Amino acid sequence: MSLIKKIFIGYLICFAIGTALLCSFYLPSTDIVKITGSEVKRVDNDGPISAENPADGPTRDVYYIYTIDKNKNIMVYRNEDTGWNFPWYFKFNSADIQAQAQSANDANQITRVVHYGWRFNMVHLFKNIISIKPVDGFDASGFSFYTMMKILGWVIWFVLIAIQAVLPSVITSWRDRKDLKRPDGSIVE
Hints:
The protein has 3 helices and 6 strands; from the N terminus they run αββββαββα. It is α+β, with helices and mostly antiparallel strands. It has a domain at 29-144: CATH 2.40.50.110. Helix 1 (3-26) packs antiparallel against helix 3 (145-179). The longest helix has 35 residues, at 145-179.
């Protein structure tokens, strides 16, 4: 295998992994959970403000929602507006979602939480909630707009990978075909 093909295959693998990670992070997912609590914390760029981490720049309030799933796994979600910024969920209702979460906690209700992002404990990275809807139980399932967005995102990912894989050979074939033209315009067969 030539060096150019190895470089292209390496590029294709890196592109596939990179776009898969972006799709995994930014496309919405759903969890069926029971909300166990919520709170508001003042944070800056370094995380929650405390005695060990004093405020050293602009600060903002971030809502946190604590949940437990049917397998007794605990998850903490962040509830913060995205506003007009990327990712474009145009979420301006974090206070309303926090009120819904508190209401679901008081009613001991099972909810469907739609979120994006990952949870990494070491770097204080939390999944951000997009919406909360009450459901009948932990086994509740259903097809929603966010499920459709997730599926559409993965279809787009596969199409991008296919284009990345096929486009260089199409361009090469077109260039080779162009080079086979005779001076009179006919093509060498």
